[in-house]
């Protein structure tokens, strides 16, 4: 029981860190894109503007300090998806998780 | 273990061509919208396009079937089909008319034609999707869609050609918009599946996207004005609710009312709208007369799907069912890991055989002089006014090799007289040959054992010649079959 609590805390800290890191990464990207947009407004199309605005809202509303929030994982998934759309629009797809080496792995 | 084929000798799939050329397993086949070209893609990182020689008719074979001679790019002499039936007996001279290569750095897993037949999309394990267009007589790559983190498993154009959906091992479904100047923009990325997504397919009305996954579920996606949302998930909530293993492929029926799915759990499931279940008459789909659109009269509304599992076909496959296709005839073909191809239909296969024979008779006896004897590379099947169907249907089943050039209203009248109900069909493009009887129980109508020498990866019915079926396999071959 005691060991279980210790393991749980360790896992929780790790997962929490990962989630915080991911959301923080997206927030940083948006800040950078907004800065670029300020210098070069034409960089951003209407669709991308909508995407950026949606991302900002999602990050603002993200329950970072409420780990028990039921919709936390759904929100994270929506955020991840929306981030990819915007990053794709900018043509700079930086996966948060490093791309796996393109080996000849079996796939079906 | 296996449920027997009902009246096994009523119908059969006759091999009409065996196409060799790929240097590695063939993953997928796709017919061009007019049914005049077949594209195949392979682990050899190429796409091959196959077509039939224009004006290729030869006298029906009199001898017993002989082994197919297989050569490389040259025209293939297919298995000759014994018998007196003119349509089937004519040899079909299929050959490889184009090879698309030098593009992807890994296996090409799936291909899709644009609805106007002028573009091809290829999905590859190299995590990209390439768009090709025909410039004169040469296919060239005009765009590349990057974004998936790893292997892309499937690509599909929506019915109006504006959108492309892709899915892959990174568990996501991507929706892209086609813009002027061969530009493609990512519209949305859907996470939601918890595992590898194997297939994506659009509903014929276009507003609904279906995805099938290694996570045992099928998801349905609709556009809410801002983004795509998952409006329904089939399965994944414990036993009895859906497939119990990977869902490999999905296919809509010709009317866009029912969805078929096949799985590693050895079953095929048919999903229908809950509203349809409430329609009068046992097992009948609600049919509205002549509205020509989808979603009228109590059937499935694509923008608000409410599917439930109506039928499960089990006991027919001993290994994973990798592919299925619900053809324009209303019949379902499947290919599995036991090298078999099955065809399922509703009702009595004896009656179906009568219907098919009637259609062959009409085709033979039709007015001479109306020419459909050749398949030109522009897509030569003629379109006649559909007989007994609702307004949108305009494709009649015509085999170019029969030389008599008939069918059309006469054949359709003959066919619809044999249907158990003369009701108009809901939906577009759904008239023509329907050997099955709606509302009747499903059964296995024919099975080809050892259709290939290895796993059958994909089966697809020809959209214009609905008795022609293409299949491909790990054995590196593409095969063409005729339902008789």
From TrEMBL, chain A:
InterPro entries: LTO1_adapter. This is Essential protein Yae1 N-terminal domain-containing protein. It comes from Volvox reticuliferus. The lineage of its organism: Eukaryota, Viridiplantae, Chlorophyta, core chlorophytes, Chlorophyceae.
TrEMBL record, chain B:
Residues 403-417 have a biased composition (Low complexity). WD repeats lie at residues 19-50, 101-134, 145-177, 190-222, 240-272, 449-484. It comes from the Eukaryota. Keywords: Repeat, WD repeat. Residues 418-427 have a biased composition (Basic and acidic residues). GO terms for cellular component: cytosolic [4Fe-4S] assembly targeting complex. Gene3D superfamilies: YVTN repeat-like/Quinoprotein amine dehydrogenase. Residues 359-442 are annotated as: Disordered. It holds the Pfam family WD40. GO terms for biological process: iron-sulfur cluster assembly. InterPro entries: CIAO1/Cia1, WD40/YVTN_repeat-like_dom_sf, WD40_PAC1, WD40_repeat_CS, WD40_repeat_dom_sf, WD40_rpt. HAMAP family: ciao1. This is Cytosolic iron-sulfur protein assembly protein CIAO1 homolog. It comes from Volvox reticuliferus. The lineage of its organism: Eukaryota, Viridiplantae, Chlorophyta, core chlorophytes, Chlorophyceae.
């Amino acid at each position: 029981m005691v060991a279980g609590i210790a393991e749980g805390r360790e896992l929780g800290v790790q997962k929490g860190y990962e989630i915080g890191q991911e959301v923080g990464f997206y927030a940083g990207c948006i800040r950078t894109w907004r800065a670029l947009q300020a210098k070069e407004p034409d960089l951003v199309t209407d669709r991308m503007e909508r995407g950026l605005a949606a991302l900002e809202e999602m990050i603002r509303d993200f329950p970072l300090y409420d780990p028990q929030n039921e919709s936390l994982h759904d929100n994270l998934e929506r955020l991840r998806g929306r981030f990819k759309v915007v990053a794709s629009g900018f043509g700079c797809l930086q996966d948060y998780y490093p791309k796996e080496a393109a080996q000849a792995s079996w796939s079906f | 273990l296996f449920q027997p084929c009902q009246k096994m000798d009523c119908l059969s799939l006759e091999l009409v061509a065996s196409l060799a050329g790929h240097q590695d397993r063939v993953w997928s086949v796709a017919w061009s919208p007019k049914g005049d070209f077949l594209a195949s893609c392979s682990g050899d990182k190429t796409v091959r396009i196959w077509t039939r020689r224009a004006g290729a008719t030869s006298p029906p074979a009199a001898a017993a079937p002989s082994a197919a001679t297989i050569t490389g790019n040259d025209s293939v002499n297919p298995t000759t089909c014994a018998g007196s039936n003119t349509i089937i007996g004519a040899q079909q001279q299929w050959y490889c008319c184009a090879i698309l290569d030098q593009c992807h750095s890994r296996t090409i897993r799936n291909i899709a034609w644009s609805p106007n037949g002028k573009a091809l999309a290829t999905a590859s394990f190299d995590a990209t999707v390439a768009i090709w267009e025909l410039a004169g007589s040469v296919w060239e790559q005009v765009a590349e869609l990057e974004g998936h983190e790893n292997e892309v498993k499937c690509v599909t154009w929506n019915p109006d050609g504006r959108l492309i959906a892709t899915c892959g091992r990174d568990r996501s479904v991507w929706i892209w918009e086609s813009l002027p100047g061969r530009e493609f923009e990512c519209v949305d990325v859907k996470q939601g599946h918890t595992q590898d997504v194997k297939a994506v397919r659009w509903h014929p009305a276009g507003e609904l996207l279906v995805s099938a996954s290694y996570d045992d579920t099928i998801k349905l996606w609709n556009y809410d004005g801002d983004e795509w949302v998952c409006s329904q998930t089939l399965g994944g909530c414990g036993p009895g609710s859906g497939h119990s293993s990977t869902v490999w492929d999905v296919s809509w029926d010709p009317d866009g009312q029912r969805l078929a799915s096949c799985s590693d759990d050895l079953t095929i499931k048919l999903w229908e709208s809950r509203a349809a279940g409430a329609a009068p008459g046992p097992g009948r789909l609600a049919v509205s007369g002549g509205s020509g659109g989808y979603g009228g009269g109590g059937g499935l509304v694509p923008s608000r799907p409410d599917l439930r599992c109506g039928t499960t076909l089990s006991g027919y496959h001993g290994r994973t069912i990798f592919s299925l296709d619900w053809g324009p005839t209303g019949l379902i073909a499947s290919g599995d890991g036991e090298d078999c191809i099955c065809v399922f239909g509703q009702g009595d296969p004896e009656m179906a055989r009568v219907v098919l024979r009637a259609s062959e008779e009409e085709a033979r006896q039709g007015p001479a002089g109306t020419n459909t004897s050749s398949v030109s590379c522009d897509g030569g099947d003629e379109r006649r006014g559909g007989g007994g169907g609702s307004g949108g249907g305009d494709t009649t089943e015509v085999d170019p090799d029969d030389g008599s050039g008939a069918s059309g209203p006469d054949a359709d009248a003959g066919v619809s007289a044999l249907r158990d109900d003369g009701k108009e069909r809901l939906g577009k493009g759904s008239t023509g040959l329907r050997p099955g009887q709606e509302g009747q129980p499903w059964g296995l109508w024919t099975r080809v054992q050892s259709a290939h020498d290895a796993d059958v990866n994909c089966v697809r019915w020809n959209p214009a010649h609905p008795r022609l079926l293409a299949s491909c396999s790990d054995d590196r071959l593409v095969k063409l079959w005729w339902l008789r």
